[in-house]
Write a structure and sequence with these properties.
Number of strands: 0
Largest sheet: none
Order of helices and strands: HHHHHHHHHH
CATH superfamily of the largest domain: RNA polymerase sigma factor, region 2, helix turn helix motif
Helix content: 55-70%
Oligomer: single chain
Number of domains: 2
Mean pLDDT: 78
Structural class: mainly alpha
Distance between the termini: 42 Å
Length: 213
């Protein structure tokens, strides 16, 4: 990465890319690739699927950079493209025969970034649970609770109303609490109780109503 390009913000880099600079888009990719990978992995639950989705998303962004209007942050734009790529991949695979979930999830091999809770087996269980709640709810929970984006920004990424994001998060958290309740620490003599996934942003309440989807 050249020093001159490294000092440019994302919008300037996209403009340089659209103007023919062959290196500018690579700087954008280096800045955002790891976070896009984490979102795709935790939304889809499978490293190979996540790699395919991110590759598709970055190719789409590369081709569409010239039409970027700047009405949203570049990171919002990239995450929107990535989530759409994840959902498109799920739709493409929906009609195909599915294999056993345990066979589809890579228990730590090749997974970029830190495990969700640091332990490979626990991380694999969480990825499996995220996959069970469905990609739309998983994407909302991952973007708000794991990546820490504000609810309003996630609504832009997903191109849905704020209320829909809150509803998907609330329902996703409730289902994750049930699926992952056995992971909650317990005091001696007390039975385990489901531990909800706490929101990382105060804009995302624990309950909400679905708005539009």
């Amino acid at each position: 990465m050249s020093g001159a390009l490294a000092g440019l913000d994302d919008r300037e880099l996209l403009a340089r890319h659209a103007a023919g600079d062959r290196d500018a888009f690579g700087v954008v990719v280096q800045r955002h690739r790891d976070r896009l990978w984490r979102v795709a992995l935790r939304t889809l639950g499978d490293p190979d699927d996540a790699a395919d989705a991110v590759q598709d998303a970055l190719l789409s962004a590369y081709r569409a950079a010239g039409s970027f209007r700047g009405d949203a942050a570049v990171t919002t734009w990239l995450h929107r493209i990535t989530v759409n790529a994840c959902l498109d991949l799920v739709r493409r695979k929906a009609s195909r025969p599915s294999t056993a979930l345990d066979d589809e999830i890579d228990h730590g091999e090749g997974v970029a970034g830190p495990d969700l809770l640091g332990d490979r087996e626990t991380a694999a269980e969480i990825l499996a649970a995220l996959r069970q709640i469905g990609p739309e709810q998983a994407a909302a929970v991952v973007l708000v609770d794991v990546e820490g984006f504000p609810v309003a920004q996630v609504a832009e990424m997903l191109d849905v109303p704020v209320g829909t994001v809150k509803s998907r998060c609330a329902r996703g958290r409730a289902r994750l609490a049930t699926l992952l309740g056995h992971l909650a620490p317990t005091e001696p003599g007390n039975p385990a109780s489901p531990a909800p996934v706490e929101p990382a942003n105060p804009e995302s309440p624990a309950t909400a109503t679905e708005d539009g989807t």
